[in-house]
Amino acid sequence: MRRFLIYLSGARPDILETTPTDLGKFEGVGGAVLITSTLALVSMTTVLSFALNLTLLLALPVAAFWALAVMSLDRWLVASIPSSGTQRWAMAAPRILMAILLGVVISTPLIMQVFRSEIDARLVTIKQRNAEAIVEEFRRGPIGQQISTLESEQAQLERTIETGGALDPNQDPQLRSLTAERKTEQAKADAYLTEWQCLLYSGKGCANSRTGDGPLVRVFQARYRSAADSVKATDDRIAARKKELATEDSATRTFRLNATMVSLQQVQARLTESTREQSRLQSASLAANQADDGLLIRLRALDEVSQGDIVLRTTQVLLFLLFMLIMCLPVTVRLLQRPGAYEKVLALAERSEYRAARDAYSGLRRERPDASAVLMSIEEIWARTPPDEATGHGREDDESEASTDSRAVALEHTRLSSMEEPSTRRPDPRDLFAEEDEY
To answer: Where is this region: Disordered (predicted)?
Structure first.
């Protein structure tokens, strides 16, 4: 278990063997990473159970993969934060933001699990409210309006059949037009009468304060009488039309009765089809609403529950902060640690490994034939280069320069040949500290 915690902390076990005093520090960091990954496992299991209705056996593998991803990310976060330096917090800022984001994502499902009973109780109210909204929406929607129109037509046709084919006066187009015309004329007559009375007697609601008989009074009197005559004439036309409808012959009534029965059958068929379609869609929506138990509706329920209860809201905030603090624990612990012996030995080991890699690269150049060929080809290039006539130097100067360059190439070749092979053994910590003293 100790080795596993050290692995999670991102520390090098070979360096920790030389600094046993720092073992507890890095085991604590590894334990923090293990705690966050465990909470991630529980959180993802909860999300999959609510959102996808998966069983525990199906949710655990996916949740385990998520926990491993969180574990790897946390391990990288704690390992990438520098142990010291003036830019330590600046370099750690993006990692802190990532840790906070991870904490928010993981802590929310855990809070939902804590308040599960309160959320379940609120879900009943939310689903009932949604069901009422669904019914009202279908009633006012296109299908609902179509059903309302068909029901009105059906009632009108049934009244016509009940009267034996006699046309309902209230549904006669001509009679309805005359009724609307009479209403307009009656409004004009009432307005003229009011103005006439105000000019004669004034009173409440009248704009004028002076009264008396005069030309203007006679004008409004004439207008009122004309409007009243129009109303009386319209009343006579309405009475005549009603009498005409009442004295229709039996053949006309029989024809209208048969046509009404055919129309009633068509309207009833359309009404049945529309009602069936509305019931099907409404039942499907109500069933989906009743079966809704996902993550979004639970978040809404949690928000509604906490809005009216200050104690619940405070508890929710405190739990959220607690879980987020736990999820940020690895980065926080790593930032609060002070550099110890491990960091010093690690710096020396990295320096020694760099030197070994540099020496290995130099030895590789010495052992490869193409490296020696490059060195030897320099002399050939100088030997084939003709003297520079423009500068006036002779052959002797060129030979002197070539000889000097050849000696420099030979010295470089001798230095590369005399380099020691890189050591493959692990450096002794005492040697590392000795090298540190040299610096």
So the answer is: 385-439
Question: Tokens 């379940």, residue?
Answer: 120
Residue 106 domain flag: yes
Higher model confidence: residue 260 or residue 41? 41
**Are both 99 and 225 inside the same structural domain?**
no
Residue 8 located in a structural domain: yes
Same domain, 189 and 283: yes
**Whole-number pLDDT of residue 413:** 47
Residue pair 58/24 in contact (Cβ under 8 Å)? The answer is: no
Residue 26: exposure state from Cβ atoms within 10 A (0-12, 13-18, ≥19): buried
pLDDT of 283 > 70? The answer is yes
Burial (CB count within 10 angstroms: exposed 0-12, middle 13-18, buried 19+), residue 38: middle
Q: Residue 245: exposed, middle, or buried by beta-carbon count in 10 A (0-12, 13-18, 19+)?
A: middle
Identify the top-confidence range among 63-77, 324-338, 384-398.
63-77
Structural domain includes residue 76: yes
Domain end, chosen from 338, 371, 400, is at 338
| End-to-end Cα spacing for the chain | 38
- Tell me the per-residue pLDDT of 141-200, one tens digit each, with 9 for 90 and over: 888 888 888 888 888 888 777 777 666 666 677 888 888 888 998 998 888 888 877 877
Going from the C-alpha of 364 to that of each of 244, 353, 403, 413, 416, the distances in angstroms are 121, 16, 28, 13, 10
Label residues 303-323 b or e (16+ Cβ within 10 Å = b).
Answer: eebbeeeeeeeeebeeebeeb
| 12 and 102 belong to one structural domain | yes
Domain that holds residue 42: 2-125+295-338
Same domain, 312 and 234: no
Identify the domain boundary among 280, 313, 338.
338
Map tokens 């596993």 to a residue: 4
Asked, for residue 108, whether it belongs to a domain, the answer is yes
Residues 244 and 361 in one domain: no
Domain total for the chain?
3
Alpha-carbon span 313 to 336, nearest angstrom: 31
One domain for residues 279 and 165: yes
Global pTM reads 0.49
| One-letter amino acid for residue 299 of the chain | L
Cα atoms found within 13 Å of the Cα of residue 269, Cβ hemisphere only: 6
| Residues 154, 226 within the same domain | yes
**Region of 421 on the Ramachandran plot (φ > 0 left; ψ -120 to 50 alpha; else beta):** beta
How many whole angstroms separate alpha carbon 11 and alpha carbon 314?
Answer: 39
pLDDT surpassing 70 at residue 390: no
